[in-house]
Structures are given as structure tokens and as C-alpha cells.
């Protein structure tokens, strides 16, 4: 890590350490207020009130995207956990209904990874609200997702039902689903699934030297060139979830190796998570953010690592809010250091995930 990056992480930690009781960290920013503003922007600028889903962007595109709306449910759950507002729960309920209708009266699609994100969002929504319909959706999806596994290339889930390639996006999230379902239902079969998926993912798609998580493989071999924030995040999350169940510190060692590498030039630039464009790529950073928070919160990691990763996230939030947020509309772009006026819902969601992460870590006094 170069001195420039170290300086900004140190400053982020400094601001965190100087806060008064009950005050959230970071350059005297009111992160709860900022997160509220981002939530209002998401509803006002992206929500389709007639179709009950989130539009493609804030510039007139109304196309429905299943995967992005699954993450929107996850963000609404973040807001509900923080505020407990009935109005937020109403949007959550509308969204799962709207997604069902927009998808042809079904939650099942051809892409296993997209269904996995919907299952994960529904599990969190169930845990947050106690509303069983969310758990029922997750269970329904998990049954279909498990049909995507076979012994080609030693195991693993296919990316989609064409069954031509297997990748991290279809496997690491599935491991998290199995682990979280085990924690809810205590079914040993789910824990067996989680361990089996994790072993395949680690053996096939993680660089043993650096912890860098590769994207996928097919008949032509392993793709080691795509270095996405997304993939690092879901492998970290897999390790944390299995550690929570088993207490096996090997899972946390794996997660920490990948997390530390995520602060390298492969994934960041000057201490900021790299620009991976709009479209689906706009969501990738938020996925890593979400799982770094999980590592800090549930990984039982050393204080120095908590401060390192917390400072990293806080630095990203400061840059996003002070340099990369268009005001007064509160719009985020793919590059967190540059302002835009038009953006995809995916990139907006990533920015909101980051702000919610800072509030969450501040409330847990992990910054």
C-alpha cells in the first residue's frame, strides 16, 4: 500500500477516533442524514410507482432488471433495519410483488446467480421483518438453484441454464445462501452444501498465493483476467458465514487474505474502489462493501484489521460524499470521485450500500 493511500486511511481513522459519544464518524458528516437523503433519492428518482420496481436509470429508462431489483430489496432492508419505518416495509412488499409480475408471474429465471441474489435479499428481509413470505420465496429459489450443480470440472454451479460455464457469481453467493439457511433452519444438508460449494470455489477460482478471486471457468480454462470487486466480496462473505457456524479460523484466514488483496491495485486506485462502469458493473463495489462490513462485524478479526478495513470504507464514503455526489439530488456515479447527473440504478445502489455501511459500522462502534 503506498504512502498516499496510507495517509487517507489514517485520516479516516483519526476522524473516527475523535467523535463524541453517539456521533457517527468522518469529517463531521452526519452519515445517518446522508443515508436518509440517498434513500429518498432512490425512491424519488428511480422507483416505478406504477410497476412497483426500480427503473433502469434516472434518465427515462424503465426496463426491468431482475438482478438489480434484488439488490434494491437488499438496500431497502438496510434502510428498514436502520429506521424500522412502515413506509420502507411497504416498498419492500411492493417490490417483491412487482418483481413477480414483471418476471411473468414467477421468481424463477435462467440465471442462477441472479436468483441467488434474490434469495439472499429475501433471507435478509425475512430476518429483518419476520414476514414469512420472504422466506418462502428464498426457499422456492433455492430448490431451483440447486439444479445448477453437477460434476463437470469437479463440481460447482453453472452460471445459467445453458450450462456452458461456472463462475464465482454463481457459486460464492450460493455458499452464503446455504450457510444462512442452515443458521435459520438447522438442516445439516444445508451446511453440507455450504462446505461443498466453498471447497470447490476455493480450489478452482481463488489464487492461493494472493487470495485474488478469479471470475470463472469453462471448457477453455479459467478466466484469470477479470478482476472484479464483486468476486472478492462474495468469497469474503462465504468465509465469514462458515466461520460463524463452525468456528474454523481457516475460513477467516481465507477471507482476510482476499480482503487484504482487495486493497491492492487489482481492485482499488488511490484507496478508492475502482470504476467498473454502469450497468451490472455498477453494483459490484457495493457487494464488496457489504461483505467487508460482514467481515468487520462477524469475523472476530484483529483490532488492526478492523481499523484498516473500516478506515478504507470510511475513506471511500468521504470521497463519494464530498467529491462524487451530485447535490441536491444525491446522485452517485460509477467513479466515486466524480459527479454525474444521470446514472444507472445499479450505481446508485452501490453508493447507498456504502453510506448504509458507514452508519452500521458507526452504530456498532467499529470505526
Provide structural commentary.
The protein is mainly alpha-helical. It is built from 13 helices and nine strands.
Note the topology:
Blueprint: H1 3-17, H2 31-46, E1 47-48, E2 53-54, H3 66-83, H4 86-102, H5 112-129, H6 132-145, E3 165-167, H7 168-185, H8 188-205, E4 216-218, E5 221-223, H9 229-246, H10 249-261, E6 268-269, E7 272-273, H11 284-298, H12 303-323, E8 325-326, E9 331-332, H13 345-363
Antiparallel strand pairs: 1-2, 3-4, 4-5, 6-7, 8-9
Helix pairs in contact: 1-12, 2-13, 3-4, 3-5, 3-13, 5-6, 5-7, 7-8, 7-9, 8-9, 9-10, 9-11, 11-12, 11-13, 12-13
GO molecular function: hydrolase activity
Organism: Chitinophaga caeni
Protein name: Glycosyl hydrolase family 76
Number of strands: 9
**What is the residue-mean pLDDT, rounded to a whole number?**
94
Inertia-based shape: globular
Determine the fraction of residues in helical runs and give it as a percent range. 55-70%
Please list the strands of the largest sheet in the order they lie side by side. 3-4-5
The number of distinct helices, counting runs of at least 4 residues, comes to: 13
Portion of residues in beta strands equals 5-15%
Structure classification? mainly alpha
In the CATH classification, which architecture applies? Alpha/alpha barrel
CATH fold-type name: Glycosyltransferase
Kindly give the count of domains.
1
Which oligomerization state do the chains in this entry correspond to?
single chain
Radius of gyration: 19 Å
Q: Major sheet, described briefly?
A: 3 strands, antiparallel
The helix/strand order is: HHEEHHHHEHHEEHHEEHHEEH
Uncertain stretches of 5 or more adjacent residues? 1-8, 10-25
CATH top level assignment: Mainly Alpha
Alpha-carbon distance between the termini? Answer: 20 Å
Organism: Chitinophaga caeni
Protein name: Glycosyl hydrolase family 76
Pfam families: Glyco_hydro_76
Keywords: Hydrolase
Amino acid at each position: 500500500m503506498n504512502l498516499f493511500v496510507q495517509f487517507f486511511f489514517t485520516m479516516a481513522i483519526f476522524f473516527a477516533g475523535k467523535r463524541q459519544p453517539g456521533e457517527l464518524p468522518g469529517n463531521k458528516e452526519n452519515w445517518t442524514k446522508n443515508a436518509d437523503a440517498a434513500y429518498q433519492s432512490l425512491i424519488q428518482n428511480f422507483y416505478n410507482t406504477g410497476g412497483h420496481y426500480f427503473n433502469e436509470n434516472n434518465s427515462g429508462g424503465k426496463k426491468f432488471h431482475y438482478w438489480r431489483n434484488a439488490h434494491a430489496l437488499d438496500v431497502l432492508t438496510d434502510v428498514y433495519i436502520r429506521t424500522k419505518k412502515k413506509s420502507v416495509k411497504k416498498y419492500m412488499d411492493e417490490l417483491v410483488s412487482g418483481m413477480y409480475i414483471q418476471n411473468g408471474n414467477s421468481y424463477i429465471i435462467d440465471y442462477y446467480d441472479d436468483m441467488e441474489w434474490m434469495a439472499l435479499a429475501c433471507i435478509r428481509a425475512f430476518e429483518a421483518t419476520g414476514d414469512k413470505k420472504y422466506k418462502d420465496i428464498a426457499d422456492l429459489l433455492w430448490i431451483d438453484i440447486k439444479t445448477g450443480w453437477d460434476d463437470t470440472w469437479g463440481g460447482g454451479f453453472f452460471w445459467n441454464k445453458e450450462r456452458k460455464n461456472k463462475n464465482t457469481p454463481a457459486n460464492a453467493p450460493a455458499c452464503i445462501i446455504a450457510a444462512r439457511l442452515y443458521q435459520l433452519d438447522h438442516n445439516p444438508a444445508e451446511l453440507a452444501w455450504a462446505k461443498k460449494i466453498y471447497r470447490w470455489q476455493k480450489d478452482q477460482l481463488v489464487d492461493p498465493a494472493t487470495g485474488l478471486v478469479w471470475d470463472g471457468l469453462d471448457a477453455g480454462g479459467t478466466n484469470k483476467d477479470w478482476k472484479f470487486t464483486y468476486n472478492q466480496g462474495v468469497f469474503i462473505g462465504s468465509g465469514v458465514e462458515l466461520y460463524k457456524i463452525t468456528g474454523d479460523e481457516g475460513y477467516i484466514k481465507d477471507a482476510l487474505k482476499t480482503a487484504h488483496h482487495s486493497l491492492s491495485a487489482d481492485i482499488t486506485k488511490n484507496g478508492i474502489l475502482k470504476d467498473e462502469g454502469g450497468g451490472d458493473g455498477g453494483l459490484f463495489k457495493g457487494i464488496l462493501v457489504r461483505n467487508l462490513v460482514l467481515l468487520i462485524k462477524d469475523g472476530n478479526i484483529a483490532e488492526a484489521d478492523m481499523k484498516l478495513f473500516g478506515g478504507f470504507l470510511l475513506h471511500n464514503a468521504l470521497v463519494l460524499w464530498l467529491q462524487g455526489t451530485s447535490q441536491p439530488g444525491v446522485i452517485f456515479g460509477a467513479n466515486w470521485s466524480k459527479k454525474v447527473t444521470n446514472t444507472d440504478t445499479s450505481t446508485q445502489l452501490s453508493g447507498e450500500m456504502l453510506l448504509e455501511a458507514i452508519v452500521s459500522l458507526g452504530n456498532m462502534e467499529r470505526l
